[in-house]
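Researcher: I'm preparing a figure for a lab meeting and need a structural model of a single chain. I don't have an experimental structure, so a prediction will have to do for now. The sequence is pasted below. Please return the structure as tokens so I can convert it later.
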Amino acid sequence: MVVFNDQDASEAAARYVGSSAGGKAIFHQADVSKLAQVEPMFERTLQVFGRLDILVNNAGIDPTAPFLQVSEDLWHEVMGTNLKGAFFCAQKAAEKMCRTGQGRIVNISSVHSQATMPGGFSVYAASKGAINSLTRELALELAPLGITVNAVAPGAIEVERFASNPVYDRAALAAEIPLGRVGRPEDISGVVAFLCSDDAAWLTGQVISVDGGTLTRLYLYAGRTVPSGQKDRMHDS
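Model: Understood. Here is the structure written out token by token.
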């Protein structure tokens, strides 16, 4: 039994849940940056299904701008969806989960929360770094209520909006990833499913990077040669 808040994906997903998985799915549109729209989404979930066991906070936007050109409107737009939305969806979900004494909350973070990248990602990186901290804090606060809170931090994932971009170069991007390929949505969904399963019952407060090894790379040295002795001294410090 699933509630989707993604109009573009919900029809196909609902068909899969209903026919292939033998479950039931509904769609409820809500702008998670607006608290007034968040509460009705969770109330409808309880009306239709009677309980809430899992929340996956996957709403996110990533408009970019050079740091010196970031406007207040852009800041509020990104933070409203990526951070405020996740915060209050988690709050409303936890309120419902308290009724059964158990629940799973999975926040979707990003490798941008831990690694820098040129291209004007300052606000997006700030929002995802905050998600990591929020995940750990909520894990502590909600543990006595039987609710686990974890985060998944994807690397480069080939979704339609990236693949359809005329400047997207799969081969070039794959060459930057230690495992040699761009990630697929199922690389993320499998980890999310694990975090929602009984096998992860004693796992909380974790941020799991699913990035093909991207964060193992020392991009500090990309594009130039650093003498081995200098590398050693920098690591020792």
